[in-house]
Amino acid sequence: MTTHLTTDRLLLRDFTPSDEAAIHSFAGDPSVTRFTDWGPNTPADTRAFLAEVTTQQTDPHRTAFNLAAVQADSGRLIGSVSIGVTSPQHRRGEFGFVFHPDVWSQGYATEVGRSLLRFGFDHLRLRRVSATCHPDNHASARVLRKTGLEFEGRMRSHLLVRGVWRDSLLYAAVNG
What Rg, from alpha-carbon coordinates, does the chain have? Predict the structure, then answer.
């Protein structure tokens, strides 16, 4: 089953093998991955990511959606967004996003966050959707608040990133 979501300015669609160069243009950029727990990607890392997400698309019981963010007017792939079920029993999920630096501060992340939140509540039937960000990533924290998530706290030593334990800020929204 193919997944397509639309926002005012974007098409969120399943990745295809031809997306590799566009993905690598931001996934290999140290400024993009500075606050992530992965990257910067090597070309092999990007190919492995693409192989994983295209395989995920064939699962008839799919609960993870990694999607290409494509500008509707130009057709340019400008980011990678994801939402997935983390607990079917408790109807919990989480989402995230990363964008090419050329389009930072243009409202795309907020647009995507709102769309993913609706998809999580309406399509995936989630009760709770969360997202995390690095404590120093003030832009992402602002986006998560603008998306409609509330700050819930700081998770200490949440992730082991490049050999160092790192805190994360937790944001969430509840449906209902």
Answer: 15
> What is the distance between the alpha carbons of residues 117 and 172, in angstroms, rounded to a whole number?
10
C-alpha 52 chain-centroid distance: 15
Cβ neighbours of residue 39 under 8 Å, at least 6 residues apart?
27, 28, 30, 32, 33, 45
Are 108 and 9 within 8 A, CB to CB? yes
For residue 59, the 8-state DSSP code is -
* Strand ranges in 27-89 using DSSP code E only, listed in sequence order: 64-71, 77-87
Contact 140, 93 (CB under 8 A): no
CB 84 within 8 A of CB 65: yes
Neighbours of 59 (CB within 10 A): 10
The amino acid present at 128, given as its one-letter code, is R
40-92 per-position pLDDT tens digit? 999 999 999 999 999 999 999 999 999 999 999 999 999 999 999 999 999 99
88-138 tens-digit pLDDT: 999 999 999 999 999 999 999 999 999 999 999 999 999 999 999 999 999
Whether this prediction's pTM lies above 0.90 is answered by yes
Q: Order of strands across the sheet with 164-174?
A: 4-6, 10-14, 64-71, 77-87, 92-99, 128-133, 164-174, 150-161
- The owner of tokens 């092999």 is 44
